[in-house]
Amino acid sequence: GYDHVCAIDKAANLWCWGHGGSGRLGFAAGPLNGVPRLVASTIDRWLEIAAGQQHTCGIKADGSLWCWGQNKEGQLGVGNLDDSSIPIRVGHDQDWATVSLGLESDHLSCASKVDGRIFCWGSNLNGQLGDGRGDQSIPTKIGDGYSSVAVGEAHSCALKTDQTLWAGSAAANPQLSELIISPAGQCSVCLDGAT
User: How many distinct structural domains can be found in the chain?
Assistant: First the structure.
């Protein structure tokens, strides 16, 4: 993350440390926490973790998605704007595969499901949700047929199963240069044969 770290050990336990503001570590903590601390209980098993600027999301072994930390733009995906210092389950689905969070000033979360559907939520200030709408506080389907998704500071990209790369961003964002698709942030194919 921006100023915190989370890791999954060999026993699938989740540990976090670093800056504890807004609950981003998954437990009540002060601003500085230099020692890794167990998140939730030892019965929880985690498959994947992603740390953003001020929030964190992870996928448990049962395929459920959990988020915690700052939520001022709906980046926790739980339908409200309340911060949480403990993991909160995002919906009831148990088929989440990957999760990616924005850094720096971005408050965006995206995740893929095992069937290739991509969902994103949180800030859409720069069109990174790829759908022309405003901020979303619950997972919003972006598309089908994807193998992975990655979120940057003011953009999002996803690799389709046909190996084409798709992206959503504001046209003014220099990070994408020739990958920029449209000023409205509508997703369009960017590169063919991306690997």
Answer: 1
